Amino acid sequence: MRAMVMRSFGGPDVLQLEDVATPRAELGEVLVRVGAVEVSRTRDAGTRSGRHPFSQQVHLPHILGGDFAGVVESVGPGVDETLVGKRVGVTSGIFCGKCDACLSGSQHECLTQEMIGIHRWGSYAEFVRVPIGNLHELPANVGMIEAAAMAATGSIALMQLREARLNAGDKVIVTGVTGALASVLAMLAPAFGVQAIGLSRRVAQTAVSLNATVLDSSRVDLAQAIVDACGGERPNAAIDNVSSPEMFDQYFPVLRNGARIIVSGAIGTPDLPVLRVPAQPMYTRSISLIGIRTADYSAIREFWGLVRDGFRLPHDILHEQPLETAATAHRRLADGTATGHTILRVSPTEL
């Protein structure tokens, strides 16, 4: 099979197209023909560098690529053969199912969680073997490109909104709103009656379809601008997928008492950010800082239920390019020119 293989850590050029052996589905698994895969700043570009914490868990040679969309090609022992031919979205997290966290329904806290594209070969390839629990059947009118984007970001965005404990009429700050995860957050928030206030250094590149208030995160009066965008009120929460210390310093003082700050995707670059969290106002204003690394099964099921009920992503935030250009995609993530979702088309035709 064709795959983008990395035999060393380093810059984008370590990704090389090669022919490698096609994997075989094992017990409880299926083999999926990959249609499209989203390029992740954290899991893919960060890991490739060799300087990211994920890099330490990779054994070379390696194939990157996590959440994706495709078609079930074959099944392993003990798996229903009627799955063959099903169009599916595939999530990358693999939970042990045995630890206290998994048994209590908090799979996102699993002590031995694995990820497709880190602990096993990923989806920058024509075929990937995955556990059947990671499959989510796609509606007929959802294509591979959109499905890959939703698989990569939908359930974690929903998990973040849930952990922020927002109610209808609440207001939430969403940092890096022109990025992949934050753009889905901006699309999901109105479905729950929540107003999203997006922050970005690239306001001019904001997709019109986001239909959200977006503020320039570099403006000196950002704190007051946030309050003004909230109609004079203070935001109920912040979902921070950038963790820029400068941005945090601006939005933290204007959060409402009892606000929750949800952090995910904050380790997207090897140069890990450090937030200047003031302990005294955290205490006196009852503000919570919560890290969410992935979604649990409940959030994953709920999100794909929303997709079946009609939730869709606008096409102007989906940017498709062929698998062979993976290195170029990584460069654009690194230099900050990529917006929305960068999707690698693996199969040349729609499956």
Description of the molecule:
With 351 residues, the chain is an alpha/beta fold. The protein has two domains: 2-154 and 295-345, Quinone Oxidoreductase, Chain A, domain 1; 157-291, Rossmann fold (3-Layer(aba) Sandwich). Helices cover 24% and strands 24% of the residues. It contains nine helices and 18 strands. The chain has helices at residues 41-49, 100-103, 144-163, 180-188, 222-229, 245-251, 279-284, 297-308, 326-335, and strands at 2-6, 15-19, 29-38, 62-63, 68-75, 87-90, 93-94, 114-115, 127-131, 135-137, 171-175, 195-200, 213-216, 237-240, 260-263, 288-291, 318-322, 341-345. The strands form four sheets. Strands 3, 5, 6, 9, 10, 17 and 18 form a seven-stranded mixed sheet that branches. The protein has a six-stranded parallel sheet with strand order 13-12-11-14-15-16, with helices on both faces. The chain has a three-stranded antiparallel sheet with strand order 2-1-4, with no helix packed on it. Helix 3 (144-163) crosses helix 4 and helix 3 packs across helix 8. The protein starts with a strand and ends in a 6-residue tail after the last strand. The mean pLDDT is 93.
List keywords for this structure.
single chain, 351 residues, Rossmann fold, seven-stranded mixed β-sheet, six-stranded parallel β-sheet, 18 strands, globular
